[in-house]
Structure formats: C-alpha cells, structure tokens
Design the sequence.
C-alpha cells in the first residue's frame, strides 16, 4: 500500500541513516503538515457543531454540578455537595437502582429470546416469510418510543389486552392496573423496553449465527454434544461480537430511558418507576435545582461508560 | 432429516409467536381507536359500530398537516447538513488515522455513549442565550451536534475501508483534495451515506427529549414531541389517543414499508457500528 514513499526515502536513508531518522522524528515533512492542515479543514465544520452543542454543554454540566443554582439567580459554589447528595439520598439511589433494574428486562429478555430463536433457525431467513418476519420485527425500531409507550399504557390498562388475556386463560385474579401498581409498574415498564428491543436483538443474532460454519455443529453433534452444550460452547462464543452489540444498545436504552417512562408512568406510582433521565428533567425544570440535576446527569453519563467499556472489551474482535 | 424439518417448523412457530407479540399492541390500539370516543373499550374487540371518524377528529385536533410540515422542516434542517459535514469529517479523519491528528477521532468517539439527558439542562440555557428557544432552530442546531459522534464514526469507518491507492492516484493527477473528495470519494461512499441518512431521519423524526424541553409549541416540534403534548391533552380519551398515536406513527411506518430493505440494512449495521 504505502511502499512508494518508503522506496523514495530508501537511498537517502542509506547515505546517512541516523541523522535522517532523527530529523524525521523531530519535524514532520511539509507534505505531512499540509496533509494534516487539509484534514483539519475537512473536520472543522463537524467539530464546530460537536463542540458547540456537546462539548460546551458537557463542560457546563460539570460546572453547574458544582453550584447551587435555581436557574435564575446567582450561582453559589458548593463543591462536591451535589454529588454527595446524589450518592447518599435514598430516593435518588432508588431512582438509579430503578435504571439498573430495567437492564434485567431491556437486556436479558431480548437477548435470551433472540438466542433461542437464532439457535433454532441457525441459518438465513430467506423468501417471503423471511422478509415479512424482518419487516414486522423491526416495526418497534421505526416508531417513536412515545407511541410504544402509549400503545403499552393501553395494553396494561385495567380494561386492556393483558388483563383480557389473563381472564381468558382463567387467571383473572391476577388482573390489575399494571402501571399503577407499586410492585408491578417497574416490571411493566421493563416489558415495554423488552418489546421495543426484542426484534432488533433477534435479527442481529440471527444474522450473526448464519455466519457460523455449520460443520462445527455437525462435528459437535457427532461427538455427542447436546443442544445446551452447543449453545454454551459454540454459539455464544461465536456470537460474542453480536451479543456485545445487543448488550451495549440495550444497556444504554435502559440506563438512559426517558420517553417510555415519561409517557407510561411519569415515574409513578410514587417514585417506583422514576429513572435518572426523567429525574434530571424534573429536578432541572420543575424543581429548579439545576446543580443537583447536573450532578445526576454527570453520574448517569459515568455509569453508562462504566457499564459499556467492559462490554466493549469483552466483545472486541479477536486478532 | 426429520430433526432438520422439526427444527424448521419450530423456528417458524417461534417467529410467528414473536411477530404476534410485536403486532398485538398495534392491533389493540387500532381496535380501541374505532370505539366511540370517550368510552373505555376492551383490550381487543372489533367494535359493533366502528367509529372511523375518530381518525378524522384526531387528525384535526392534533393538527396533523402542520405537524407533518414541522417535522419535515426539522428533518430537512438536520439530515443534509449532518450527513455533509460528517462525510467530510470522516474523510478527513481517515486521512490522519496514523498521524498526529489521531486524538481528534478519540474526541468524537467520546460522545458515542453520551445520554442526551447529560447535556439537556445546559442546552436549554445555551439555546435560550442564542435567542432560539421555542423555535425549530432550537432542535435543528443541537441535534446536528449531538448526531456528530455517531455520524463521524460511521463515515470514518467507511473511508478507512476505501483502498488508499484511489486517493493517491488522484493526487498524482493533480486533483485538489476538495475535488478528489467530491468526484471520487463521495460517489463511492453512497451506500454508507444512504444508511446514515435513513438512521438520522428516524432519530430526528422520533426525537422526544429535545422538543419536550426546548420547544413549548407542539406545532414547532417533531412528531414524537407533538404526540407527547397530544397525550397530555387527550390522555383520558383512550379511543382518541389511540387514533392520534396511530396517525402519528403512520408516516415512518409507510416509509419503512416502502424502503424495507434499506431500513433493515441501516438499522442492523447502525447498531453493529454504534
């Protein structure tokens, strides 16, 4: 690929090797410098927007998080007090815990079901049936989450389809207004997220499993491996990258959830379904505690990173 | 043989079950939308006297024509600019991949997992200071910035896969970088640009947090943001709310059905790279 410049340098280097190498390391050539300048010119517009609407607000979030501010009056520096509140206040801790609780539903259910489907199909989905399946399973990815929230608020309502189905199979005693129930509201919100992410994860895993060489499975079957062993020793390791993608997408969706909760429960009953995203909004704009809201925002950002980085590391492609 | 066939059958049954779970909420909304306005219908039940008029009423109450117009304007403000500057940046970054400018790429990647909630409060004050609060610009400008990490990452990944001989050949011909970018690189990048445009269109159209915080007037919002306001106003009228929600999700679903193949490819690749 880049052997031409090397060839050009070769004779000169042979004349006076040590000096040439030293010069090269200290100062890049005019050509390199020009290349960097041109590249930066291409990058500049994107960088300006990114800096103006991501980096600057992020810096301001950090700054606000160290202040006490009602959004109108004077800012008062309070050091790390807001962070101390975020990490000790029982309500805020429960709210952060709720987000982690949602991971159980947003992440585990779609990946478990997706793996089950993928390992049964174990190949491409072709023909009309494949197209129809793909189209239907992707629908939740295309509609606004707000619409999913409205649809499921109706599904979980007292006269909704969930209770109707429960009554139909003789479990009418379990029927309730799911989203208004202190115990069941959070799992119900979790199921909405699982519904949204189910199709995406299934399709990712089905696409991934189609790439595994089928002879591996045949060999394993000859050796007397059962379905469970195939899943643990062949499918999951081979799908490491795809599973990594599913975990990343779904964990971010759970920790940073806002739309679904805002529409379906607004955090209630009590704070049983309140999540950090919604609490930031409430603190900053309803309660005028901009400092505390910003501290929670920074904590949320760090929590997402702490959850995602190990996943990325485990799922990185093997060299 | 027999096992293979039972497997295929089992696979089909599982997929049909998954599809049923996916479609039931839509069907349930549809049946509710046809019940008389203001009543509490049952979850799934074909009404004896379907009230198609609910859709007309929801269309008028939600001011759908204006909403479609508003959302389209926002998409037109966000997507072309984002795609253009991200393509340029992706190209630029791919050219200094091994040089001293590498850290610039890391700066962009930093924003990939950033939840929008982490910057929404300062964005409010920033947009207010710019004097564009409650206008469509309050959504367009920040969204372009917020989409940059993914878009730049996406386009850079594409350009890294383009053989570098292509650019070098053009350099020998004496083509300036700008000419080389438009005449050689952009045409090759068309599939990547297509997918990115689809993803950005969906993310803009369905964006909810920004409109809720930055724009009071539902008619200046995105479709999703307007639906939030519609729920606030008509939330107690289940048939009307369901009719409104169905109307609001129709445009993207229609586009999705028409460009099914491109959407699926974009969404699959989009999550893999993101």
Sequence:
């Amino acid at each position: 690929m880049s052997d031409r410049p090397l060839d050009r340098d070769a004779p000169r280097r042979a004349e006076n090797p040590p000096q040439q190498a030293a010069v090269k390391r200290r100062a890049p050539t005019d050509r390199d410098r020009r290349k960097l300048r041109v590249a930066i010119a291409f990058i500049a517009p994107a960088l300006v927007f990114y800096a103006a609407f991501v980096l600057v607000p992020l810096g301001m979030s950090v700054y606000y998080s160290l202040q006490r501010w009602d959004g109108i009056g004077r800012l008062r520096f309070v050091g790390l007090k807001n962070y101390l509140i975020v990490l000790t206040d029982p309500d805020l801790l429960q709210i952060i815990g709720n987000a982690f609780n949602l991971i159980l539903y947003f992440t585990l259910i779609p990946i478990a079901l997706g793996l089950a489907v993928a390992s049964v199909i174990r190949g491409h989905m072709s023909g009309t049936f494949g197209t129809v399946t793909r189209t239907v399973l992707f629908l939740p990815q295309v509609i606004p989450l707000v619409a999913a929230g409205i649809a499921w608020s109706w599904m979980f309502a007292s006269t909704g389809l969930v209770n109707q189905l429960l009554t139909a199979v003789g479990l009418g005693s379990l029927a309730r207004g799911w989203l208004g129930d202190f115990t069941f509201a959070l799992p119900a919100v979790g199921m909405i997220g699982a519904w949204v992410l189910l199709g995406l994860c299934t399709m990712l895993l089905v696409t991934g499993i189609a790439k595994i060489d089928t002879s591996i499975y045949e060999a394993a079957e000859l050796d007397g491996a059962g379905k469970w062993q195939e899943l643990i020793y062949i499918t999951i390791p081979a799908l490491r990258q795809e599973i990594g993608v599913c975990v990343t997408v779904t964990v971010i969706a759970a920790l940073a959830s806002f739309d679904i909760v805002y529409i379906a429960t607004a955090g209630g009953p009590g704070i049983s379904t309140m999540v950090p995203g919604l609490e930031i909004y409430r603190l900053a704009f309803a309660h005028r505690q901009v400092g505390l809201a910003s501290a929670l925002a920074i904590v949320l950002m760090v929590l997402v990173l702490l959850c995602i980085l190990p996943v990325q590391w485990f799922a990185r492609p093997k060299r | 043989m027999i096992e293979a066939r039972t497997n295929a059958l089992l696979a089909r049954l599982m997929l049909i079950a998954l599809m049923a779970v996916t479609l039931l909420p839509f069907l349930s909304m549809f049946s509710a939308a046809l019940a008389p306005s203001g009543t509490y219908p049952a979850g799934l039940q074909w009404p004896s006297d379907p009230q198609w008029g609910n859709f007309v009423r929801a269309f008028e109450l939600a001011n759908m024509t204006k909403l479609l117009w508003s959302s389209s304007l926002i998409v037109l403000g966000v997507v072309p600019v984002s795609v253009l500057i991200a393509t340029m940046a992706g190209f630029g970054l791919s050219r200094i991949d091994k040089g001293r400018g590498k850290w610039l790429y890391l700066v962009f990647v930093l924003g990939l997992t950033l939840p929008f909630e982490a910057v929404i409060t300062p964005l409010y004050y920033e947009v207010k200071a710019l004097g564009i609060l409650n206008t469509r610009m309050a959504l367009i400008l920040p969204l372009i910035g917020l989409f940059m990490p993914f878009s730049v990452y996406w386009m850079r990944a594409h350009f890294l896969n383009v053989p570098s001989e292509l650019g070098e050949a053009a350099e020998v011909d004496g083509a300036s970088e700008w000419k080389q970018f438009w005449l050689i690189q952009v045409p090759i990048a068309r599939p990547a640009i297509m997918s990115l445009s689809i993803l950005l269109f969906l993310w803009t159209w369905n964006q909810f947090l920004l409109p809720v915080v930055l724009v009071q007037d539902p008619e200046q919002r995105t479709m999703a943001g307007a639906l939030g306001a519609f729920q606030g106003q008509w939330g107690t009228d289940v048939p009307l709310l369901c009719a409104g929600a169905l109307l609001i999700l129709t445009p993207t679903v229609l586009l999705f059905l028409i460009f099914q193949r491109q959407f699926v490819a974009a969404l699959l690749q989009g999550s893999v790279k993101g």
